[in-house]
Amino acid sequence: MGDAGKRLFDLLSSGLALVLLSPLLLGIAVAIKLDSRGPVLFRQQRVGQSQRPFRVLKFRTMVDRDPDAIDQHSERVVSEGEDPRITRMGRFLRATSLDELPQLWNIFRGDMSVVGPRPVLPEQVEVVPSEFMARFEVRPGLTGLAQVRGRRTLGWLQQLEADAEYVSRRGVLYDLWLILRTIHVVATGRGVYGTPGQNWRAYRDSLRQDGGRDDQ
After folding, report:
1. Is 107 contained in some domain?
2. Is 112 among the domain residues?
3. What was the pLDDT predicted at 84?
4. Going by C-beta distance under 8 Å and a sequence separation of 6 or more, which residues neighbour residue 100?
5. What is the number of alpha carbons within 13 Å of residue 73 lying toward its C-beta?
6. Cα–Cα distance, 130 to 118 (Å, whole number)
7. Helix 22-35 and helix 3-20: axis angle, to 10°?
8. How far apart are CA 11 and CA 52, in angstroms?
9. Residue 161 within any structural domain of the chain
10. Helix axes of 172-188 and 156-169: crossing angle, nearest 10 degrees
11. Of 99, 190, 179, nearest to 144 (Cα)?
12. Neighbouring residues of 71: CB distance < 8 A, sequence distance ≥ 6
């Protein structure tokens, strides 16, 4: 699938999904407002294709906090169990991946694609080794190879390896296969509650202990 064909697929599929899922989106929005104080949507800066910044959209799953006031370098890793930062509705949304649905608007706008590497935080770019920078050659995706391989159970480098592999293998049939695999993964909850792999902050700290990145 060429870039033009992929963009057309993204535009048509996200637009159709936004229309068909509008009752569900409205219902989730109402449930969030009834469950806790704060906005329905969580907006946060992420890094996309060619390292261009954009605001990613999610349904809010945590207590109301200003995204720009969160220190990502020291933020405590979210635990899905009884983490007090996660609301009751938020636990359900995270378990079912419904919190990601507002990103259909990001796809419609052209910030993201249906399939691709997940968008990263600006702070995470600092710890992407040079051999995995190819992940920024394509639009970030709502789902991707890392999501069907293990989601949060993958370590940071494993996620990056999957991202780079996707870029090298991407195509119409491969994207369709990943979409079908995503449906299966979400339906079964695979990778949601497993033991988390080494996150990017732990990887960063290990680099500091080793005296810096190998490619510098």
Report:
1. yes
2. yes
3. 82
4. 58, 142
5. 6
6. 17
7. 60
8. 20
9. yes
10. 140
11. 179
12. none
Radius of gyration of the chain (CA): 17
CB atoms within 10 A of CB 34: 8
Q: Which two tokens stand for residue 208?
A: 């500091």
Full residue range of the structural domain in which residue 202 is found? 3-206
Vertex 71 angle, CA 143 and 25, to 5°: 40
Of the pLDDT bands very low, low, confident and very high (cuts 50, 70, 90), residue 135 is: very high
Residue 89: is it exposed, middle or buried by C-beta count within 10 angstroms (0-12/13-18/19+)?
Answer: buried
Task: Give the other-Cβ count within 10 Å of 163's Cβ.
Answer: 25
Which tokens hold the place of 173? 């049939």
Determine the Cα–Cα distance for residues 101 and 70; give it in Å rounded to an integer. 23
Query: Of 138, 161, 166, 123, whose CA–CA distance to 49 is shortest?
Result: 138
Nearest C-alpha neighbor of 59 from the set 22, 90, 83: 90
Name, in order, each residue with C-beta under 8 angstroms of 141's C-beta and a sequence gap of 6 or more.
112, 113, 114, 115, 116, 117, 118
Give CA–CA dist 7/4, Å, rounded. 5
β 41-47/53-59 pair status = antiparallel
CA-nearest of 116, 13, 3 to 56 is 116
The helix (H) or strand (E) run that includes residue 24 is helix 22-35
Q: Tens digits of per-residue pLDDT, 148-206?
A: 998 778 999 999 999 999 999 999 999 999 999 999 888 887 655 556 778 888 898 88
Per the structure, the count of domains in the chain is 1
CB 123 within 8 A of CB 68: no
